[in-house]
């Protein structure tokens, strides 16, 4: 059996690799600068190679240090998540679900009361997260639109395909069945988080994406949809997020929606599926298909 270097030394090195500073690493681990330096030196002796070198007022990683840092960061992050999950499970803590602010506001919150009625045993806490970021400690799962293949270190429960389409105010276009290319006559709105949405829709409709002329880009999908609601132009949006606006007539979708390669999934930080995660996934899958 191969012996590992000192765990304390690996933890000290990981902190140095993340901060590129002995002092910052010492502060992060609540030890002295000298203790960090000794642990890193011990690790270098155990591995028989240099891992860090001085660089101005801080340190830089050698090639060997960079290789080791990629692994220590992944391992310590997973260990932190696992410990947090065990602790939260033992304390009967609520299941924390993260999703984008737009999905939270436009889809989940209007259905929250129904979820409580259908799954009274599920104690759920919702939090807004950036879909592009890793699952942070304290979050049990994240709802995310993404394209497979899925990462090997996370479990992804597929819930539903993504469908996108152009939406606009009813008074912006009055024809009952306009041809798709007539869309190009109108100002187009997009969100910076999904620049591929318009080209995907155009290709599905046989329209050359190079003909697109985007009038305005928005940082968040919610802002783009508000722009559509006040008549700034035609927005491209996932069907799930405009269901209520279409039902009430605030928006219309004369060209319908097309399926994209993306899937809405429930992302879990590890491979295990807890009973709460499975219960939530089953409810979400049913709610999304209604």
UniProtKB/TrEMBL annotation:
Residue ranges constituting the HTH lysR-type domain according to the UniProt record: 5-62
Record-linked PROSITE patterns: HTH_LYSR (PS50931)
InterPro entries: LysR-type_TF_proteobact-type (IPR058163), LysR_HTH_N (IPR000847), LysR_subst-bd (IPR005119), WH-like_DNA-bd_sf (IPR036388), WH_DNA-bd_sf (IPR036390)
UniProt keywords, alphabetically: DNA-binding, Transcription, Transcription regulation
UniProt xrefs under PANTHER family: HTH-TYPE TRANSCRIPTIONAL REGULATOR, HTH-TYPE TRANSCRIPTIONAL REGULATOR TRPI
Family designation: Belongs to the LysR transcriptional regulatory family.
Record's protein name: LysR family transcriptional regulator
């Amino acid at each position: 059996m191969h012996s590992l270097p000192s765990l304390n030394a690996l933890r000290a090195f990981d902190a140095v690799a993340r901060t590129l500073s002995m002092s910052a690493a010492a502060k992060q681990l609540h030890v002295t600068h000298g203790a960090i330096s000794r642990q890193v030196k011990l690790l270098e002796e155990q591995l028989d190679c240099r891992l860090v070198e001085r660089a101005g007022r801080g340190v830089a990683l050698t090639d060997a240090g960079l290789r080791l840092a990629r692994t220590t960061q992944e391992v310590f992050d997973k260990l932190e998540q696992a410990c947090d999950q065990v602790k939260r499970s033992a304390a009967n803590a609520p299941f924390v679900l993260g999703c984008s602010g737009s999905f939270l506001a436009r889809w989940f919150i209007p259905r929250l009361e129904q979820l409580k009625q259908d799954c009274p045993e599920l104690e759920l806490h919702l939090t807004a997260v950036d879909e592009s970021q890793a699952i942070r400690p304290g979050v049990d799962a994240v709802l995310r639109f993404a394209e497979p293949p899925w990462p090997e270190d996370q479990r992804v429960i597929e819930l539903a395909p993504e469908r996108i389409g152009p939406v606009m105010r009813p008074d912006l276009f009055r024809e009952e069945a306009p041809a798709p290319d007539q869309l190009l006559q109108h100002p187009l709105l997009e969100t910076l988080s999904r620049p591929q949405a318009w080209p995907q829709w155009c290709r599905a409709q046989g329209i050359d994406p190079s003909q697109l002329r985007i009038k305005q880009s928005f940082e968040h999908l919610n802002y783009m949809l508000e722009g559509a609601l006040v008549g700034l132009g035609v927005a491209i949006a996932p069907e799930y997020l405009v269901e209520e606006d279409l039902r009430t007539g605030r928006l219309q979708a004369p060209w319908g929606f097309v399926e994209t390669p993306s899937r809405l999934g429930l992302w879990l930080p590890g491979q295990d599926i807890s009973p709460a995660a499975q219960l939530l996934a089953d409810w979400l899958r049913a709610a999304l298909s209604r």
